[in-house]
Design brief:
Blueprint lengths: L1 H17 L1 E4 L1 E3 L5 E3 L3 E4 L12 E3 L9 E2 L8 E3 L2 E5 L9 E7 L2 E6 H6 L3 E3 L1
Antiparallel strand pairs: 1-8, 2-3, 4-7, 4-11, 5-6, 5-10, 8-9, 9-10
């Protein structure tokens, strides 16, 4: 039973990472280039009650629920830890994601939409 569960967890991990490729730089549709290590600022949330639609807590292997970043982070600066480019579009999602840390939590950003809605401001 443990082998079956471990196999399923490994298969899920491999399939979720297979959709993306790790890149060092990404050129955003507005012409700006993002590089791992660049700084950015959090703008205002574009969702209901000023929550963030395009900045979410990065799910781990145990949970599949997406939790949006809550309001109250505007003006804070963070560093791009990792950039992952989507190999092919999935629904409305195109482009790349960036990952950054806030304490122990890691956040995943749909960078094209976050820049478009000004949830993320590149510095």
């Amino acid at each position: 039973m443990r082998k079956i569960i471990l196999s399923l967890v490994l298969l899920f991990t491999i399939s979720s990472y297979a959709q993306f490729k790790k890149v060092d730089t990404y050129k955003v549709s507005n012409g700006t280039t993002i590089t791992a290590g660049d700084s950015f600022e959090i703008g205002e949330g574009s969702g209901q009650n000023e929550t963030y639609l395009y900045i979410n807590v990065k799910a781990d292997l145990t949970g599949h629920t997406v939790y949006p970043m809550k309001k109250g982070h505007q003006g804070r600066k963070f560093t791009v830890e990792l950039i992952r480019e989507l190999k092919s579009p999935i629904g409305d999602f195109r482009g790349a994601t960036i990952i950054f840390k806030n304490g122990k939590a890691r956040y995943l950003v749909d960078i094209e939409n976050a820049i478009r809605t000004k949830e993320v401001i590149l510095l």
